[in-house]
Amino acid sequence: MNSEGGYVVSGASRGIGREIVRQLTRSGARVFGGVRDPAAAAAADLDEFSERIEYLPLDVSDGDSARRFASILQHRNTKLLGLVNNAGILPEQSPGQGVEDEIEAMREALETNTFGALRLTRLLAPMMSAGGCVVNVSSGMGQLADMNSGYSAYRVSKTALNAITKILAEEYGARGIKVNSVCPGWVRTDMGGASAPRSVEQGADTIVWLLQQGARAPGGKFLRDRQEIPW
Ligand code: NDP
Fold it and tell me: Ligand 1: which residue has its CA nearest to atom 10?
């Protein structure tokens, strides 16, 4: 039994997720990293805070995997202070692709970026109490106020994720749990590529800041650089 509070970060193996883990553990927090390959994530994790991070198997697009992940934490009586739905994919799409390929790419993006976040939140919210924070890592590419062409699968998955943020913020707000979307900006990771202007430290900043606000955090907002942005 482990009654110590902790945070869950999905997609903790690399990129922004790994940096969120680094910042949280450095501040003294305990973190459960949901990863598809825990042994590889642990082997790559050589820093001095490694005793505060535990990697557990999680594929957010797979209901059985997510239920197993949640039941491990439940059996330990874990109190969750926060959840970061960070795991995400950017499916390849070409301008001339057929509509069936476009729909298939959209289905793939929705499975991970949208349903994965909904699934994990529903499974883990019962382990959170007032002041708990859920952060959905979204994207400016899902912003209706600034919608553009290309990458239709990714864009739609993040717009839908933002809708889920609003719905869950209403539902869990009554229990004092805050649910928000964050755009990390364009960040140098495997997904963002080498030309992106932001470091992973900058990309993780607003996410970690929100988690640390606890009960003072806003709810049902879309944020970038610690400021509210339009949906
Ligand atoms: P990366 O491609 O560097 O990392 C993606 C992470 O998600 C990896 O840890 C990967 O795990 C994990 N992942 C993917 N699918 C699954 C799954 N089904 N189950 C569990 N884990 C999974 O991406 P970033 O770090 O750049 O992106 C993190 C988040 O930030 C994403 O949600 C992305 O959409 C968002 N974002 C990123 C931007 C950027 O410029 N980089 C801009 C705006 C938003 P594995 O190692 O097993 O593949």
Answer: 11
Residue 3 identity:
S
Coil, strand or helix at 137: strand
The predicted model gives 62-87 an average pLDDT of 97
Please give the Cα distance from 26 to 28 (Å, whole number): 5
- Atom 34 of ligand 1, residue of closest alpha carbon: 88
Q: Are 87 and 116 in contact (CB under 8 A)?
A: yes
Can you give the pTM of this predicted structure? 0.97
Coil vs helix vs strand at 199: coil
Give the β-pairing of 222-224 and 178-182.
parallel
Please write the tens of the pLDDT for every residue from 116-125.
999 999 999 9
Per-residue pLDDT, 2: 40
**CA–CA distance, 196 with 179 (Å, rounded to integer):** 27
| 86-109 pLDDT, tens digit each | 999 999 999 889 999 999 999 999
CB atoms within 10 A of CB 144: 11
**Which is it for strands 222-224 and 227-228: parallel, antiparallel or unpaired?**
antiparallel
d(CA 1, CA 66): 20
Regarding the beta carbon of 33 and ligand 1, being less than 6 Å apart is answered no
